[in-house]
Amino acid sequence: RAGRAIAGFAPRPPGSFAHAQDDIRILVFRSARPHIFAAGADMAEMSRFNARDAAEFATLGQELFATIERLPFITVALIDGDCFGGALDLVLSFDLRFATPRSRFSHPGAKLGIVTGFGGTSRWRKVLAPPAGRRLFLANEVLSSSEVLAVGLVDRVADSFDEELARLATLDPSTTRFLKELTRVSDGLTQPQVMMFAERLGHLYFGA
Q1: Which of the chain's ends, N or C, has fewer CB atoms near its CB within 10 Å?
Q2: Is the pTM higher than 0.85?
Q3: How far is residue 133's CA from residue 160's CA, in Å, rounded to a whole number?
Q4: Angle at CA 182, nearest 5°, toward 8 and 199?
Q5: How would you write 8-64 as a 3-class SS string?
Q6: How far is 72 from 128, CA to CA, in rounded Å?
Q7: For residues 132 and 151, is the Cβ–Cβ distance under 8 A?
Q8: 139-158 pLDDT tens trace
């Protein structure tokens, strides 16, 4: 019930996606429906799950969102309208989140008596301070685009993002790949280990 991905702003040659990644500079994900980003999971569908179905569904979501986080190019979630529940889990896996002024954000799982299986309850810690996380995941507040901009959930609020997306598409892809991989592995490493890893990545990506 979400949207569609647009791997644009760079030529994409025929062949497998693995080979095409080398030429993709930015991936933009947006809803195919105007003014509604995504309302989250289909509760009627989930009510028919048995324990195995639920575990497989949760694993599918976690693997998909982890794959998005590992993509070697810039990923942007373009949010226009309501972004609730599993949709909020989804956008937390993107590098950047841009929202229109009419967008709203909420995670009503606790109110419905469920806990998301897609990793949002842990992933938010990379983006939000605990008070903001409690407002969304425990108090189940519905926050406006200006409110989530203030707490850091989104990076931009505007009616159009064409200029910013075009600017992002001009960034050097090797530098983007280097920084994303370094950021991804640096948690849990000591400073000397981070420096050593950065040096080795530099040789790999830049021949430095």
Answers
A1: C
A2: no
A3: 27
A4: 120
A5: CCCCCCCCCHHHHHHHCCEEEEECCCCCEEECCCCHHHHCCCCHHHHHHHHHHHHHH
A6: 23
A7: yes
A8: 889 999 999 999 999 999 99
